[in-house]
Design a protein that fits this description.
The structure holds 2 protein chains of 2 kinds. By secondary structure, chain A is of the alpha/beta class. In chain A, about 50% of the residues lie in helices and about 5% in strands. Chain A has a domain of about 400 residues: Methylmalonyl-CoA mutase (TIM Barrel), CATH 3.20.20. Chain B has one domain: Cobalamin-binding domain (Rossmann fold, 3-Layer(aba) Sandwich). Classes of the chains: A alpha/beta, B alpha/beta.
Chain lengths: ~575, ~150
C-alpha cells in the first residue's frame, strides 16, 4: 500500500490518544459495587443517553476520564490554549454585547426597529437582509416579487443603506451585517455612508459575515461559483486590512450549518475547517497570518443540549489557538483568540405553545454565556411563526439582561471548567473535530469536500436521523411530540405589508431616473475591467460604483456576466 | 401494449413527487428531510434544486409527469410564489398534478392557499406520517384524473 505522509491532523489525533488514561478504575469499580446492584434492585432498564453528536454518555464522570495533562490543556482565562476564555477577566471586564438581529420591510421600518432596540439597552447593531438582497437581486426584479422585506430589510442601493443608518452614530456603534454573497457590495455601502457622514474609516467598526463556504454548505445563498466569491472576499479582506482597521470582514459561521441540521460536532468541525481555509487564503494572497487572523471572528449556534453547547464553545477556542500557533505559526496573541457571536437556536423553537420558547431560549443563552461568548442574540418566542414582533423581541432582550444582571452567572469565569463531565465532553468534541479535519483534508480540502457534496450529505444525514428520532419518540419536543394541546391559539405576529415592496420599487424607479446614469455606466465598466483581472483588487471599484448609486443587482450582474452562476451538486 | 394492461401497470406505479422551493429561499433543511422520507415511503422523488422559477417547476412537473408537486418556502413569500405556480398550471390547463405546500405558513394564510388548490401547508413539527399520508391521498386523486384522461 502506498505510504501517505502524516498530516498535521494525524499527529494531533495520535497525541490525543497518547494522553488518554488506560482505564477508568474508579468508575468501573463503582459501577459493579454500587450502580448495578441498585439498578437490579429498582428494576431499572437501560436507556440510551446520547447527544446531538451521537456521543454516548455515561452515568457519571471522574478525574480518570480526563487526559494526563488536563490542567495544562484547561489552562487559565486569557492564557493559551484559552479553553476557559479569551480574556483574563471575561465578563467582569466587559459584558457580552447584546446584539439583536433585526431587519424587515423597508429601510425606514428597520431604522425604527434599530432605534427602538438601542433605546431599550441593546449595545450593538445587527442587520438582517431580505432574500432578494442576499442573492443580489433588486426590488424591481420579477423574481423578487413577494419577497421584499419578508425575511429582513431590502437593500437595492446605497440610498437604502443611508436610510437604515439614518440618525445612528457610526463612530459610536458597531454594526454586524449578515450578508455573504454580496458582502463586498454591502461593505462598500457602509463605507460610503461613513464617508458621506465624514466619519474616518478607522472609526467605523463592524462585521460582515462573508463566509461563503458555509453558504455552499448550509445557508445556500450564493450568486457565483465558489472561486469567484472567494476572490471577492480576498479583495475585501486585503482592502479592509489596509483601510478599515476595525472591520471584521469574515464571520466564520457555524450557525447556519447547525440550523441546516448538523450536530454540534459537525458545526464545530465544519466551521473551523472553513476558518482554516480563510487563513490559507489570506496567506496565499500575500498577507501575514498575524496581520489578518485577529480580524477573523466566529458565529456559533447555541442549541438545547446544554452541556454539549458549552463544551463545543470551549473546544472551539482551544482548537483555534492550537492550530493557529502550531500549524500556521501565528505569533501575536490576538491571532490565537477565537472571538465569537452566538445566536440561540431557531430550529429548537416550536410554533406549538410558543411561550415555551422563552424558556428554551433562556437555557440556550445560559449555555452561550457559560461558553464564553463575546456577543449574543436571543431569539424571540414567536419566530417559528414569523419575524419577531416588538413585544417578543423585547422579552428576548430582557432575557439577556436578566441573565447578565440578576443571576450571578457571569460573575465567575468559566464556572463549568473543571467539571469532569464538561472537560471530558470538551475533549471528545475536540477529538471528533480533528477526525473531521483529517477526513476533509483527505478529500482534498473543504472546498473540494463541499463541491463533492460530502459536507452537505453529512449534515442531511444527521438532520434525517434527528427527525426519525423525533418520530420514534426518542427525542422529545414539548408541545410537539409530548404534552401536545389540541387547541393551539394563534398569536399575534408581525405583518409585513405588501406596501414595503411597492415603496421599494417606486423608490428604485425614481433613483434610476435621477442619478447620473453616465457615471453609473462608467463605474460599472471600470468594475468589469477590474474583475476580469484576477490580480486587481476590485474593492475600490465596487465602492465607486456604489457611490454612483449603481444598484446591488447592477453591480452583481457585472460578476454574473463574467463568472456565471452556480448549480449545487446533487445531495438527495 | 394492450390498453387496459397499461393502465393497470400505471396504477401500481409508485407515487411520483417533485419537491421544489420556487422562490429565492435557501432554507432546505425541511425539504431534504422530506426527500428522504418520501423515498423511504416508497415514492419516486425528484428535487428541483435551489432557486428554480415557478415556470421551471411547472415545466419539470409536466415533463416528468409527476403526481404531486410539493412546494416549500420558509421566507414568507408563499402567498405570492405558490400562487404563481398554481396560476401557471391553471393557464396550461393542468389539473392532474396535485399541489401541496409547507414551510413557515401562518394559519391565517392557509385558507387562501387552499382556495388556489395548494393543500397541506404544514409547518414545523408536523409528523412525517401526516405529510406522507396527505401526499399519498393527493397523488391518488391526481392519478385518478390521469387515468380518466
Amino acid at each position: 500500500m502506498e505510504k501517505r505522509e502524516e498530516t498535521y491532523w494525524d499527529s494531533k489525533l495520535k497525541e490525543i490518544q497518547s494522553k488518554k488514561s488506560a482505564e477508568n478504575k474508579a468508575y468501573s469499580e463503582w459501577k459493579s459495587r454500587t450502580l448495578e446492584p441498585w439498578n437490579r434492585k429498582t428494576g431499572y432498564s437501560e436507556k440510551e443517553y446520547t447527544n446531538s453528536s451521537s456521543i454516548d454518555l455515561k452515568e457519571v464522570y471522574t478525574v480518570e476520564d480526563l487526559p494526563k495533562d488536563h490542567s495544562k490543556q484547561i489552562g487559565m482565562p486569557g492564557e493559551y490554549p484559552y479553553t476557559r476564555g479569551i480574556y483574563p477577566n471575561m465578563y467582569r471586564g466587559r459584558q457580552w454585547t447584546m446584539r439583536m438581529f433585526s431587519g424587515f420591510g423597508t429601510p425606514e421600518d428597520t431604522n425604527r426597529r434599530l432605534k427602538y432596540l438601542i433605546e431599550h439597552g441593546e449595545s450593538g447593531l445587527s442587520i438582517a437582509f431580505d432574500m432578494p438582497t442576499l442573492y443580489g437581486f433588486d426590488a424591481d426584479n420579477p423574481r423578487s416579487d413577494g419577497e421584499i422585506g419578508r425575511c429582513g430589510v431590502n437593500v437595492s442601493s446605497l440610498q437604502d443603506m443611508e436610510e437604515i443608518l439614518e440618525g445612528i452614530d457610526l463612530s459610536k456603534v458597531s454594526t454586524s451585517m449578515t450578508i455573504n454573497a454580496p458582502a463586498a457590495v454591502v461593505t462598500a455601502m457602509y463605507i460610503a455612508v461613513a464617508k458621506k457622514k465624514m466619519i474616518p474609516l478607522d472609526r467605523i467598526a463592524g462585521t460582515v459575515q462573508a463566509d461563503i463556504l458555509k453558504e455552499y454548505i448550509a445557508q445556500k445563498e450564493w450568486i457565483y461559483p465558489p472561486e469567484a466569491h472567494i476572490r471577492l472576499i480576498r479583495d475585501m479582506m486585503v482592502y479592509c486590512t489596509e483601510n478599515v482597521p476595525k472591520w471584521n470582514y469574515i464571520s466564520i459561521s457555524g450557525y447556519h450549518i447547525r440550523e441546516a441540521g448538523s450536530s454540534a460536532v459537525q458545526e464545530l468541525a465544519f466551521t473551523l475547517a472553513d476558518g482554516f481555509y480563510y487563513v490559507d487564503m489570506g496567506i496565499k494572497s500575500g498577507l501575514k497570518v498575524d496581520d489578518f487572523a485577529p480580524r477573523l471572528s466566529f458565529f456559533f449556534n447555541s442549541s438545547i443540549n446544554f452541556f454539549e453547547e458549552v463544551a463545543k464553545m470551549r473546544a472551539a477556542r482551544r482548537i483555534w489557538a492550537t492550530v493557529l500557533r502550531e500549524k500556521y505559526g501565528a505569533k501575536k496573541e490576538r491571532s490565537l483568540l477565537l472571538r465569537f457571536h452566538t445566536q440561540t437556536s431557531g430550529y429548537t423553537l416550536t410554533w406549538q405553545q410558543p411561550l415555551n420558547n422563552i424558556v428554551r431560549t433562556t437555557v440556550e443563552a445560559m449555555a452561550a454565556i457559560l461558553g464564553g461568548t463575546q456577543s449574543l442574540h436571543t431569539n424571540s418566542y414567536d419566530e417559528a411563526w414569523a419575524l419577531p414582533s416588538e413585544e417578543a423581541v423585547k422579552i428576548a432582550l430582557r432575557t439577556q439582561q436578566i441573565l447578565a444582571d440578576e443571576t450571578g452567572i457571569p460573575d465567575v469565569i468559566d464556572p463549568l471548567g473543571g467539571s469532569y463531565y464538561v472537560e471530558w465532553l470538551t475533549d471528545r468534541m475536540e477529538e471528533e473535530a480533528y477526525r473531521y479535519f483529517d477526513t476533509i483534508e483527505k478529500l482534498g480540502g473543504i472546498l473540494e469536500s463541499v463541491k463533492k457534496g460530502f459536507i452537505q450529505k453529512e449534515i442531511a444525514g444527521t438532520s434525517y436521523r434527528r427527525q426519525m428520532r423525533l418520530e420514534q419518540g426518542k427525542e422529545i419536543m414539548v408541545g410537539v411530540n409530548r404534552y401536545e394541546e389540541k387547541d393551539e391559539k394563534p398569536i399575534s405576529t408581525l405583518k409585513i405589508s405588501h406596501k414595503a415592496q411597492v415603496d421599494q420599487i417606486n423608490k428604485l424607479k425614481k433613483l434610476k431616473e435621477t442619478r447620473n446614469n453616465l457615471a453609473v455606466k462608467k463605474a460599472l465598466q471600470d468594475l468589469e475591467k477590474a474583475l476580469r483581472n484576477p490580480d486587481e483588487n476590485s474593492m475600490p471599484y465596487i465602492i465607486r460604483a456604489v457611490e454612483a448609486y449603481a444598484t446591488l443587482e447592477e453591480i452583481s450582474n457585472v460578476g454574473r456576466n463574467i463568472f456565471g452562476e452556480w448549480k449545487e451538486p446533487v445531495i438527495v | 401494449m394492450e390498453n387496459g394492461k397499461n393502465r393497470l401497470l400505471f396504477k401500481d406505479k409508485p407515487v411520483k413527487v417533485l419537491l421544489a422551493k420556487p422562490g429565492i429561499d435557501g432554507h432546505d433543511r425541511g425539504i431534504l428531510v422530506l426527500a428522504k422520507a418520501f423515498r423511504d415511503a416508497g415514492m419516486e422523488v425528484l428535487y428541483a434544486g435551489l432557486l428554480p422559477t415557478p415556470e421551471s417547476v411547472v415545466e419539470t412537473a409536466v415533463n416528468e409527469d409527476v403526481d404531486v408537486v410539493a412546494l416549500s418556502l420558509l421566507n414568507g413569500a408563499h402567498l405570492t410564489v405558490f400562487r404563481k405556480v398554481a396560476d401557471i398550471m391553471k393557464s396550461k390547463g393542468i389539473d392532474d398534478i396535485a399541489l401541496v405546500g409547507g414551510g413557515t405558513i401562518p394559519d391565517e394564510d392557509k385558507p387562501e392557499l387552499e382556495a388556489i388548490g395548494v393543500t397541506g401547508n404544514y409547518g414545523p413539527g408536523t409528523p412525517l406520517s401526516v405529510i406522507i399520508d396527505h401526499v399519498t391521498t393527493r397523488a391518488a386523486e391526481a392519478r385518478k384524473k390521469k387515468i380518466s384522461r
